[in-house]
Amino acid sequence: MGPNVDLVVSSSGFPRETEVVVIGGGIVGAATALSLVERGIPTVLLEKGLVGAEQSSRNWGWCRRTGRDVRELPLINLSMQLWDGMNARLGSDTGFRITGIAYAARSEEQWQRQQRWLEEARQYGIHSDALTSAQLRQKLPDIDFPVQGALYTALDGRAEPQKAAPAMVAAAVAKGLNLQQHCAVRTIEQTAGKVGEVATERGAIRCRAVVVAGGAWSRLLLQGCGVTLPQLKVLSTAFRTAPTDYDPGCCISFGLVSLRKRLDGGLTVASSSNGIADITPDSLRFGARFMPAYRAERQGIRLRLGQRFSEELFHWRPGRADKISIYERIRVLDPAIDARIVRKVAANLARVIPALAGVSIEQSWGGLIDSMPDAIPVISPVAPVSGLYLATGFSGHGFGIGPGAGQLMADLVTGSPPSVDPHPFRLARFTDGERIAAQHWL
Ligand SMILES: Cc1cc2nc3c(=O)[nH]c(=O)nc-3n(C[C@H](O)[C@H](O)[C@H](O)COP(=O)(O)OP(=O)(O)OC[C@H]3O[C@@H](n4cnc5c(N)ncnc54)[C@H](O)[C@@H]3O)c2cc1C
């Protein structure tokens, strides 16, 4: 089981008509719905399980500029501004705190990459520091682990994944959002190339626009509309410890182990180098497009052939309006984890921070990351279908960038001037000849 999310009460009446339907109650759907209702747009948010129960409650909770893909920097700058005012905007606590984030470089090559990122980031007004290993040791005196140096961004922070999306949705409901949970969208219906309604397990809702913010399910939802989205899933594992006095002050990553302090006094611990990419029929379809990103990340991602191949081959099919769909059969995507990864990361934790040897592990979980070949999201209209919009593919860093992504999506849906340039995030980049490549800075 994944972490318990804060519960949000669904709206009482089932709507038959609205302006905008948002599919998916993760951080991106939540931020989109919030931004739309704040503009006075009648909006319905449909979630097949519970708000926040998939990736958005399973992540590390880092809200980071540090080492981010340069194409995402304007969007993360906007997001950090939004995070900063979020608790006041919602009237509740998302757990957001500015704590700083430190990413250590273990090799000279990684250290050089991080310095190059610093130069790029300065052009976006981002003030990170390159700490020498001596400066890092001064900052984190409990850690005596050999590194070349570290990127440190004092204005980065963290929030509580189990609280953030629910808090946004609860505030949006108070402002007029109609929220339906345990309400899967089976199909998005179009007439003459235009979105007309969504078919849900509880009936149809007529609407003028649909935003797909379905995380790892977006590929399938789009397939149902006849649109190909080159998206694959990567399994990532994390765990939390019992409350401990240890508090490094900032979120820290040493590659083989990363951690942040939680509001409950424990630590969320993981490693960026333990991803598992299960081979599926989609891996065969899109594998070539992902190969450059996979090669660059190959030490961090293991390919695996197992049950998921046949499961997706036989069961992951686009829905039909009149039949129970895969979205209802899997209310919450809760992938099994490999216990060896948890043991390995716990051992690395003790190696890097000896004071944490033997700390009690309270819970571990997995999440399926919705990944794109260039590791940046799609936030875009879906050109062949008028009224259809897509916000997905956050490739493992959508929690921090979620608030800005939601605002940008609401700009696109309402035809307002976009808060940041949406060009890098257009869906058409996969077909218009752009060179598709991921950036690796950390
Ligand atoms: C272990 C892990 C660590 C991570 N760490 C970080 C981090 O520290 N910082 C960071 O910025 N990002 C991190 N991420 C990535 C981040 O969690 C995601 O990018 C982000 O949560 C994506 O949000 P989302 O709303 O797009 O998707 P999700 O949270 O996956 O939400 C999609 C929702 O859509 C719903 N849905 C799908 N299909 C349907 C349907 N047919 N009908 C109704 N509802 C539907 C699903 O039930 C789900 O709730 C991490 C991810 C993982 C797994």
Automatic annotation (TrEMBL):
UniProt KW keywords: Oxidoreductase
GO-annotated biological processes: D-alanine catabolic process
Molecular function, one GO term: D-amino-acid dehydrogenase activity
UniProt-listed Pfam families: DAO (PF01266)
One GO cellular component term noted in the UniProt record for this chain: plasma membrane
FAD dependent oxidoreductase domain mapped to chain residues: 20-412
Family: Belongs to the DadA oxidoreductase family.
Record protein name field: FAD-dependent oxidoreductase
Organism: Acerihabitans arboris
Lineage of producing organism: Bacteria, Pseudomonadati, Pseudomonadota, Gammaproteobacteria, Enterobacterales
